[in-house]
Amino acid sequence: MNYQQLSKTSYEVRQGIIEAVYNAKSGHPGGSLSSADIFTYLYFKEMNIDPTDPKNENRDRFVLSKGHCAPGLYSTLAHRGFFPVEDLKTLRKVGSYLQGHPDMKGIPGVDMSSGSLGQGISVAVGMALSAKLQNKNYRVYTLLGDGEIQEGQVWEASMFASHRGLDNLCVIVDNNGLQIDGSIQDVCSPYPIDEKFKAFGFEVVCINGHDYDEIEKAFAHARATKGKPTAIIAATVKGKGVSFMQNDANWHGAAPNLEQYQQAIQDLQKEIEKLEVE
Q1: Would you say 278 and 270 are in contact if contact means Cβ atoms under 8 Å apart?
Q2: Whole domain around residue 10: which residue ranges?
Q3: pLDDT per residue over 182-227, tens digit each?
Q4: What are the Cα distances from residue 242, in Å, to 78, 106, 182?
Q5: How many CA atoms lie within 13 A of 78 on its CB side?
Q6: Which of 234, 231, 42, 47 is nearest to 154 (CA)?
Q7: What's the number of CA atoms in the CB half-sphere (13 Å) around residue 40?
Q8: How many structural domains does the chain have?
Q9: What does pTM read for this prediction?
Q10: pLDDT tens digits, residue range 225-269?
Q11: Tens of pLDDT along 110-159?
């Protein structure tokens, strides 16, 4: 996939996010939308995965540490072919396998159940260590929220990852600047995020999380880094792609009504149509 195709796919993923959250009447659109370009690059270009063999022992692993952004992961998995896109409309409904947070037992393509903030990175570190102990070549990726890194467990895991030289681990921080209570800087500032990860022994790359050229170079740099894990700090826009959701903390965990749903789908469709004629 070239950058234009990836970008078009990311907006289709965003439409799936809106469909899922609207039909559920609950969920977390803001951080799912900000992460869509990262999700798309990981699953359509970066990771060694196969939707027809989701449990292959040699596959790359992904852990959504900010598990509340499950709509973003689910939409990406669906568009990548792990399960039908139509099933996104069953999010959070009784009897659906698409729960409010990722469930590794019931959802194809989900490598780890997550949701309690701070815990996902610890599991990813364990997966990366397991690969080293077994002389396996798979890589492990984990996506954290910038509000999530206020959790102390994140830094315990980071200290361990660096101590063990887990160069097969890539941590991505979705730095959209907002959490449920408002600005991360006002709630409990984690800045400077890059310097903190450097202090814990990580190779650090700071990027625009919506620029596929920068995304591609960052992941290539991570693969080439030896002897220590990599942290990619991705500056993003919360609610990216939906005009009235962008940079608004109120859309951290709220579902659109019918009128808002229609506007959101229209906003995203315009972006898709622009990319189709370029």
Answers
A1: no
A2: 3-277
A3: 999 999 999 999 999 999 999 999 999 999 999 999 999 999 999 9
A4: 21, 30, 19
A5: 25
A6: 231
A7: 28
A8: 1
A9: 0.97
A10: 999 999 999 999 999 999 999 999 999 999 999 999 999 999 999
A11: 999 999 999 999 999 999 999 999 999 999 999 999 999 999 999 999 99
Q: Which residue matches tokens 């903390």? A: 249
CATH code: domain of residue 63 = 3.40.50.970
55 class by beta-carbon count within 10 Å (0-12 exposed, 13-18 middle, 19+ buried):
exposed
Distance CA 222, CA 148 (A): 22
Q: Could you tell me how many residues make up the chain?
A: 278
Q: Among all chains, which residue has been given the structure tokens 């005009």? A: 243
Residue 150 burial (CB < 10 Å; 0-12/13-18/19+)? middle
Closest CA to 165 of 194, 202, 131, 134: 202
Quick: pLDDT tens for 46-78: 999 999 999 999 999 999 999 999 999 999 999
CA-wise closest residue to 65 among 9, 6, 110, 2: 110
Cβ atoms 264, 36 nearer than 8 A: no
